[in-house]
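USER: If only I could read backbone structure tokens as easily as an amino acid sequence. It would mean a lot if you studied the pair and described how this chain folds. Here is the record:
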Amino acid sequence: MLNNKEWNRDDPTLVKVDEWMKANVISKKWTEEILINKEIGYGGRADALINHQEHGLVLVDFKTQKCRKLKKGFKPNYYEKWILQLAAYSECIDYRPRCLSVVINTVEPTDCFEKLWTDEEQSEGFRMFVNLHALWCWTKNYYPVQELEKLA
């Protein structure tokens, strides 16, 4: 959708996602971008970098979820582990954009739900990611930075 490609307009869930995008996305910088951090030694593919009408430039991660139905509507769960990946991706971008999780309800077509992670959550998420990355390198006896240095 962000790339103006055809999508199933008969799918009510996708219609809600399209409505969210029209209401919130001023412009997109990119989608499905591969990001690499050569200093620490990791990489991955991020969903999108957008200019959001309320939050400005944000790194977005879309999640589908069976949201819980309450009397007042649906409620998503935002898992703390999500910010680890988003914060790590943000650190690969020079200007370190804020991180936004967007939940798409798969139970019933409803509005998309947003969580803009705080600066503190983002900093802590990156700190935890770095620690887990170091543990992963140690347990696998594989150090990507050293491998990159061999290629240089």
About this structure: The chain has one domain: 12-151. Helices lie at 12-24, 82-90, 119-140, 144-151. The chain is about 35% helix and 35% strand. The longest helix spans residues 119-140.
